[in-house]
Amino acid sequence: FQYLKRFDQGYNLDTFHYKDHSVEGSPAECLQHFLLHCGITDPSWAELRNFAWFLNVQLRDCEDSVFCNPDFVKDTLQGF
């Protein structure tokens, strides 16, 4: 949710890192962002859960990857 919120606000996500147990926004705001970005017109709860889980795994892997670390790659992968 924190990534989606910042994406919608136009922030540079290359330098953002999720902090464990940090809470932002309300459950309704989180649900709204998931509904906007999941790609399904009328998703079931299972589809929303799978979208959130998949996004979480991908973003965690991205944060852990040295190839996505802006300090390592500098500006060679701008916008990647």
Automatic annotation (TrEMBL):
Record has Ligase as a keyword: yes
A GO-annotated cellular component: nucleolus
Alphabetical UniProt keywords: Ligase
Molecular functions (GO terms): ATP hydrolysis activity; ligase activity; ubiquitin-protein transferase activity
InterPro entries, A to Z: RNF213
Any single GO BP term: negative regulation of non-canonical Wnt signaling pathway
Protein name (record): RN213 ligase
Native source species: Heliornis fulica
Gene: Rnf213_3
